[in-house]
Amino acid sequence: MSLWLLLTLSTLVLVVPRVVMPARGSMPEIHGALRLLWWINVLYCDFWHDLESGGPAPLPERGPALLIANHTCGVDPMVLQAGCHRVLHFLVAQEWYDDWAVRPICRLFGAIPVRRDGRDLSATRATLRALEAGHVVPIFPEGRIVPTSGRALGEGKPGVAFIALRTRVPVIPAYIRGTPPTSNIWKAVLTPSHARVAYGPPIDLSDIPTDQPIGKATLAAVTDRLMGAIRDLRARSLASDDAARLMTSAPAEDGDDVPRPERLAGALSGDRASPGRA
pLDDT 10s per residue in the chain (278 long)? Predict the structure, then answer.
């Protein structure tokens, strides 16, 4: 039995990466032990969470970037990393970073420990250093899990706006939905789901002056712009869902087997018709 187990594991290690990796493109940052962990995570997300996205995240091939997303549950870091060709240096709660079982993986991926009190200046400095070193740092602007599978978004915190303005690195928005609706990390990991991730283009902050102090009003405006990009992705994703449902279930008219065009157009525009409305 142990021989068969050894052969199975050897096949997975040698064959699966060769099948999975070419389809994912070139990933110079993901090598060695990271490569093994990366494809294990991809298989987990693809098969257990039925992960779908509109292609790989539009990150620069090299150089620093911020990846911002709504925070739905404990598997968000996994589904984001599965769609990225670069190593993501996540901010991890200090108590998780200090856990003996989690810490080796955190160190391997260059995770940044952060206290939950919101006053961790050392984490902010570590984030700035990671960006200065050319890494990609994902941040959840809500600062907490909103366990609604992406149906609702929380209020954005100004910390990510400060980092974006301080560094002026590309900021890529992402919207996550369909994940397990729970704030319990282990329950999220063990519960199968139909996770979806949508990515948007870099957020333009070029109109914000670089030679002026970063005040509260500026932070509030930029925070709203960053969250607005995520809200736009959410609206488009929900409209796409509506359109798909209409294509498969809308009643036909005059024997035609396709949905009425005005209903499809209404879904794509985000105008959800109420029952009985044409």
Answer: 455 544 454 445 444 444 444 444 556 677 777 888 899 999 999 999 999 987 789 999 999 999 999 999 999 999 999 999 899 999 888 888 888 878 888 888 888 888 877 666 788 899 999 999 999 999 999 999 999 999 999 999 999 999 999 999 999 999 999 999 999 999 999 999 999 999 999 999 999 998 888 999 999 999 999 999 999 999 999 887 777 777 777 665 555 554 544 444 454 444 444 444 43
154: left (phi over 0), alpha (psi -120 to 50) or beta: beta
Least Cα distance to 66 among 79, 48, 80 occurs for 80
Residue 248 maps to a domain: no
CATH code, domain with 62: 3.40.1130.10
Q: Give residue 33's domain range.
A: 19-213
Q: CA 181, 184, 185 angle in degrees (round to 5)? A: 105
Inside any domain, residue 195? yes
Q: For residue 223, is it within any domain?
A: no
In sequence order, what are the beta bridge partners of 250? none
* Number of helical (H) and strand (E) elements in the chain, helices listed first: 10, 7
Separation between Cα atoms, residue 229 and residue 235, nearest integer Å: 10
Asked if residue 277 is part of any domain, the answer here is: no
Structure tokens of 49?
Answer: 């969470």
The total number of structural domains in the chain stands at 1
